[in-house]
Amino acid sequence: MVKKNSNVKKLPKTTISKTQYAYEYISTKILDGDFVPGQRIIIDQIAKEIGTSTIPIREAIRNLESDGLIEYKAYSGAVVSAINETEYIEILSVISVLEGYASALSARKLTEKNLNELMKLNEQMHQALKQFEFEKFNQLNRKFHTIIFEKCGNNFLLDEIERTQQRLDRIRRSIFTLLPERARQSIEEHQLIIQLFKENAPLSKIEEEVRQHRINTIIAFQKQMRNKKN
Prior knowledge:
about 230 residues, elongated, GntR family transcriptional regulator, WH-like_DNA-bd_sf, DNA-binding transcription factor activity, TF_FadR/GntR_C, Arc Repressor Mutant, subunit A, transcription, 2 strands, Four Helix Bundle (Hemerythrin (Met), subunit A)
């Protein structure tokens, strides 16, 4: 069910179109995990929440269907799409290679201030996990890796990482809500990565560890999907 609304968001008085605002509102709910796979999209309720008619909502849903976030099912109407397992694994595999290489390029450019920020972010992720604040955890995790690879000095590589990450976001940004144990392991792996930076470890070792860090998420995801099917 759509959450009832102490936090009703009315349509802002800006130049943004009603359809675009509805698109962003619904897609954010999906990507943040507020709307879960298989959940029915109640058009009248969303129209009330953002203070508009149902027409922009319907148009937004058509766009979201094109993006793969929503699908139509008989007798249910528009529902949140299930995670595309194959696409998720393929994209995450590519990100593991891109971020591993970018992290190796950045390794010798990270300052003491950067390393301290990484440690702080990792501790904040630990606290977010303890409070079950998975969206905050995801945001901190994204920032953690961005601080590392943004210093790689290769703009083409950065653009490819961003494009690939956006495709991953369309599948599900809140994957750690499905894999809480993996979230805990991720924090431990971050500690190892930080230590490698501090020790000026061989670049090949840094690249390997960052790549494996992403691959471990694939392994955990595949295990979870197998368990669900058994």
